[in-house]
Amino acid sequence: MGLTWFITGCSSGFGEALTRQLRSTGDNIIATGRKADAKLSHLKETGAAILDLDVLSSPEVIKSKIDEAWSIYDGIDVVVNNAGLIVADDRSQDDMEKSFQVNFHGPMNISRAVLPASGYCASKFALEGAVECLSKELAIFAPGLKVLIVEPGYCRNPVFNKIQHVEARVPEYAQFNEAVRQAEATLTESSPGDPEEAVARMIELVKGTGMAEGRKVPLRVPLGSDSWSRVKTKCEETLEICREWEELAESVDI
């Protein structure tokens, strides 16, 4: 049985190619993009449903578009956040904001309209990606300037008592949300990390003193045994993916 795909940015590139290939296998496609009547009309011949969608739209508009898409095939199985914007060279504040709106906030609004999710980790991950890009740019244009991503684990910090909660918009999330709240209630007292020691290590990393003295500080440093363990596990999982899927990865080379 075929799947129903909701794909953004289908006027060209991966979005168009995905639409054509998936339609050839009989899957249902909801191809979206700006000015869909003009820019996506060529995909109608594939049998794909066409929907006008600008990822810069407000969350309310995006939600209404998702509802419209949902009604076409009575559901959505796969969401592909493909639409993107590349801003090269020196970027103004407006350029940066538009880039984040298209590449991050828009896709998040689409994903949340289909399936709600927490934005904290996503927003921090976006910041980490931006800083990593900045480090590569500085290595070329200003090698004397360095950036550092400190990834602390759980510390006994009163910040956990100040977390803002909202009621679950989807009933199925209520039990999960309650479990998270109960876990958070113990973090201030039960977390393994000492915030004072964490701050001391941060200062040493920046100043090149203490445990960082005489060492080349990398871009990314975990702090805390729990953070170190998660980073190590993530690296091992990524290496395993590289080993297991090497042949498939190389199969697309010309």
TrEMBL record:
The GO terms this record gives for MF are: oxidoreductase activity
Which SUPFAM superfamilies does its entry note?
A: NAD(P)-binding Rossmann-fold domains (SSF51735)
Q: Which Pfam families match?
A: adh_short
InterPro entries linked to this entry: NAD(P)-bd_dom_sf, SDR_fam, SDR_oxidoreductase
Keyword Oxidoreductase listed? The answer is yes
User: Has UniProt tagged this entry with the keyword Oxidoreductase?
Assistant: yes
Keywords from the named record: Oxidoreductase
PANTHER family for the chain: SHORT CHAIN DEHYDROGENASE, SHORT-CHAIN DEHYDROGENASE_REDUCTASE FAMILY PROTEIN
**Similarity comment:** Belongs to the short-chain dehydrogenases/reductases (SDR) family.
Its recorded name reads Ketoreductase
> Species name for this entry?
Fusarium agapanthi
